[in-house]
Model the fold of this input.
Amino acid sequence: MNKSAIYHTNSTQMQCVLSNRDVTLKLFTGKDIIKAHCVYGDPHAWVKKGDVHRWDHAISEMEKVGETPTHFVYQVTFTPHNYRVKYHFIVCDEHECMQFGEDGFTPMSEEVGLWNNFFIPYVHASMAVSSPTWVKDTIWYQIFPDRFHNGDTANDPDVIVDWEKGEVSNRVSFGGDLKGITLKLDYLKQLGFNGLYLTPIFTSPTAHKYDTIDYFDIDPWFGSKEDFKQLVNEAHSRGIKIMLDAVFNHTGKHFFAFKDVIEHKEQSKYKDWFHITSFEPLDYETFASAKNMPKINMLNKEARDYFVSVATYWVKEFNIDGWRFDVANEIDMGFLKEVHQATRALNPNLYLLGEIWHDATPWLNNDVFDGVMNYPTGRAILDFASSHIDAVTFSQRYTKTQHMVHPNIFENMFTLLDSHDTPRLLHQLNHDEVRVKLALALLYLSAGSICVYYGTETLLDGAHDPDNRRPMPWNQLNHDFMEFISFLATIRKDYPKITLAQAFDFVFEDGLLKLRFKHEPIEAWINIQSKPYFVNVDDLITQSYVISLPPLGIVVTQV
Done:
């Protein structure tokens, strides 16, 4: 038995407390394990059998729910009789069975209940993940406001570049604004989007606005607070949520507190708001190596209080639905927990999203973020769509991302294929429209929340920043591809349970990779052969959806 591959921890990712005190336990094992059971019960429940007291327990066979590149994942769900529970596992390969608990392995000859090798959580009601339930049903549309639509030329800066021919740079403005977004809400609604994520809209000297000057005001390029209120109200009337970008890792160089540091140096009362390493000459920590973005010291109480007040202000005064935290992995965890408490007190259904590109388990324990930007799942889809990995590797990598977090949290993950920080989807897939369609189909069939970068619906191109921030080509819309995007949204709307965690199993059959959904009467078929897979459309029932992508054909059909 490969004992070194077997693991389970006292973490919210493996001890998943669901609603109504239900507990889901996950056990990772090597691929030699053929069966696993969970032995569980009240640690204080004993029954007398003859002259011997024995522990009163239950035994449940665990379901193998997934396979990662290195492990099998076994899972069981049960409801303790009360809040107390202790448990261990029995794992079997083809040659032996062993008991596995917190202290390791014991032979089957050890009597259950008379030894201490158990996991022993106490299931508090507060351990259940209480993230907002609306997020999993949201299809987000990310907007870079300066490049989306100019709805009010009166607020244009003195110099704007030509919308269709101007240089794409972070130093220039194309004139996009908040009124422009409001004017296009019906367009977005028709495409199936019901959430808008806006990159920063606060006062800043650049087009990207990540070097904020004033966190309490709208940048004049974009309009006014009244314009933003109108956008929120108009969006909400259409069932569309609004999420803003919280740039709390760093400020702009012209932020009032840092300007005071520049002027007064060691005498500045704001010097401890930043990570100053030298006053003569002035030097300091920054975002990346950008000297126009000094990093905030969130261990300073005055700085923390100021930025907590920023977070609560826009929730309280403008009724926004979410915050996306920029560079979240570099922000002090204590500050993030304060923001969680303060904003949730105002709106229990507020969505708190972290920009974390890697394993984010420390931030997903029900007290910081509801989800993070799920780049790992997106990368698995992209690598498969580009043929960098085969179907087996794709299924294993995708499965791994699902089981790294609590299932309720996974339903609030923000899965995406591209953004303002990556080359555009079309560029990443070498301008192959078929592969772009395959990637988007897999995104729309994924659990939890998903996001599409503005312009993707019309195959907008772009390489790395700033080229990925081209203006929206309103005069050259690709209506055929927009129809495809609407079609994908229809599938997601017609079968809403596909957004649930672990919603489907991967099945390899007849040269196809099938996504076999558990809670909806549909399957998705993906051709993984080197030759076309022919589907007799007459054999498919009326409710079937056929995405014609030979030889990478995908069919979503009722079963």
Observations:
- Confidence is low (pLDDT under 50) at residues 540-544, 546-552.
- The first helix runs from residue 178 to 183.
- The chain has four domains: 3-127, 138-249+320-336+350-499, 250-295, 504-558.
